[in-house]
Amino acid sequence: MSYMQKSPWVIHFDGTGCRGCGSEVKSCLAPSHDFESAGIKVTDNPKHADVLLITGLVDNENSGLLERIYDNMVSPKRVVAAGACACSAGIFGECSSIVNGADNVVPVDVYVPGCASRPENIIDGIIKSFEKVLEERDGAAEDDVSGEKEESQEENEDE
Fold first, then answer.
1. CA pair distance 82, 120, nearest whole angstrom
2. Which of 47, 63, 88, 106 is deepest in the core (most CB within 10 A)?
3. How do residues 26-77 score in pLDDT, each as one tens digit?
4. Could you give the CA distance from residue 139 to residue 82 in angstroms, rounded to a whole number?
5. Across all residues in the chain, what is the average pLDDT?
6. Nearest to 15 by CA among 86, 80, 71
7. Predicted pLDDT at 133
8. What domains can be seen in the chain, in order of their start residue?
9. Higher model confidence: residue 41 or residue 146?
């Protein structure tokens, strides 16, 4: 199944920092890059999201919020860290109030490097992460179908 057959729903978490990567995410909504043409939808509700996109710094104050957003997402779910700050805390890594990368709070599946990350790379990272969601869903669907086949075969043998 191609990612275009189902649109990835993305929730964006913009931590603290210069807001450069957050601005690049906003550029992804503009006609020049256009999330929609890549089949990407944006939501503010974690229960509707397939992909959590993290930009900016994760600090001691906002790490709890990030964790709650992730916990409220329905499985299968994936996380994309975009930009140096989200990936590794960038130049702020030595600060005591900064968590050294989003992966210390939630599991990150795709890292998009850069300061700030380019919109094309952010879109590519979301698509790569969503392909993993689809693989997981397809695997679960195949397990369900094979389980149903086994049950029906057992019923036929009983008759």
1. 11
2. 106
3. 999 888 888 888 889 999 999 999 999 999 999 999 999 999 999 999 989 9
4. 27
5. 85
6. 86
7. 82
8. 3-132 (3.40.50.12280)
9. 41
Neighbours of 128 (CB within 10 A): 16
Residue with tokens 């020049």: 32
User: What is the CB-side half-sphere exposure of residue 12 using CA atoms within 13 A?
Assistant: 20
Residues 6 or more apart whose CB falls under 8 angstroms from that of 55 comprise 12, 13, 14, 15, 21, 22, 24, 25, 82, 83, 85, 86, 117
| CA 138 to centroid of chain Cα atoms | 18
Q: Is the pLDDT of residue 137 over 60?
A: yes
User: What's the number of CA atoms in the CB half-sphere (13 Å) around residue 124?
Assistant: 8
Torsion angle defined by CA atoms of residues 78, 130, 73 and 96, in that order, rounded to the nearest 10 degrees: 30
C-alpha span between 40 and 38 (Å, rounded)? 6
Task: Name the band, by pLDDT with cuts 50, 70 and 90, for residue 110.
Answer: very high
Please count the helices (runs of H) and the strands (runs of E) in the chain.
Answer: 4, 5
**Pair of tokens at residue 29:** 């909504």
What the block records as the tokens of 26 is 């906003």
Cis peptide before 38 (omega within 30 of 0): no
